[in-house]
Amino acid sequence: MGGVLEGVRVLDFGRYIAGPYCATLLAEFGAEVIRVEKREGSEDRFVAPVGEGGEGALFLQVNRNKKCITLDPMRVEGQEVMRRLIATADVVVANLPPQTLRAMKLDYDSLKAIKPDIILTTATAFGGPGPWSDRVGFDGVGQVMSGSVYMTGAGDPPYRAAVNWVDFGTALHCAFGTLAALIERGKSGRGQVVEGALLATALSFTNATLIEQAVINVNRVPTGNLGQTDAPSRRARPLAATHCAPADIYRTRDGWVLCQVTGHPLFKRWARLMGEEELWLNDPRFADDISRGNNGPVISERMARWCAGRTTQEAVDALGGAMIPTGPVLSPQQALDHPHIRAAGFMQDVDYPGLPKPAPVTRAAVRLSETPGEIASRPPTLGEHTDRVLAELGYDAAEIAALRQGGVI
How many CB atoms lie under 10 A from the CB of residue 370? Predict the structure, then answer.
């Protein structure tokens, strides 16, 4: 395959998103990634099934460019296979609880006893140290504990995001950490542990809100689609907003459009687009960010009337032409069909056995000019590469057959 990480071997014991997507990013830039699964297939293979074999959309997204072997690591023979695999590896990725890592002998002490310079990349729900370090959790745990869910929607009930931004954010942190550990190993020869945590990712993404609360006790409340710093806070004294109005999602004749005006230069462009510069720019209610935030409903009402008389396309074309941040609210099908998304090449059609049509798999969301990543192979079928990988470890055909007969692979 080639790539900047060519020659790096990664063992992927990850499940669902944080671990597997971290390994996928490494694979896309040239690492050899071997996914190790249960003999019957791991649970994350079958989330949101789209193919004849039950493989799910999530699996297809986060397991491209990998090999796959099946293995029962709790059997004595399985431990021997693992020992040989680890001896050939540079990185082990396993977003599993600490107690599970120890039971599978994937904890760092066990790994470095086999390969002293090994890098272990792991992610947990809550991180540590702390009283919840051994607890388990998914993406939603990070969302609800970071303040994000509290601030989303109208507040009754609170809403979590439909996309797993905490999981994917953790995967990105882990991939970055793994690259840093590989660079350090190249300098010093030392391996180490790279540890991500869902809660740590969520807190890092919502950190500005937390800082504001801690420093000035703003006590913000949910504001729907209106920017949360566009509305007055609960404090008696108004605060400087980091955004101004209009900043909301507005109904058009055939859909919805987001408009986000931040700062006075953008507000001047918006007033010019409205054809009402004298009205908006000379009124002291809209003189600065604080004032515009405190009088946001007046501005939003004007924007709502402007959008209501236009189609979504007309609105985004006019706003975009005026260099005002905007975008249409798209359904999944509309996102797939959008001309910019198609032209930008964010996704690549990938065939997979049993799918009625190719799957549009997103490429890595970062591009390198000299050593770009690539989707070179589809996600693996269950155990597709077991025989090949074990043969590379020195097992002959009879030994592989015996392991399969014994339920080890």
Answer: 5
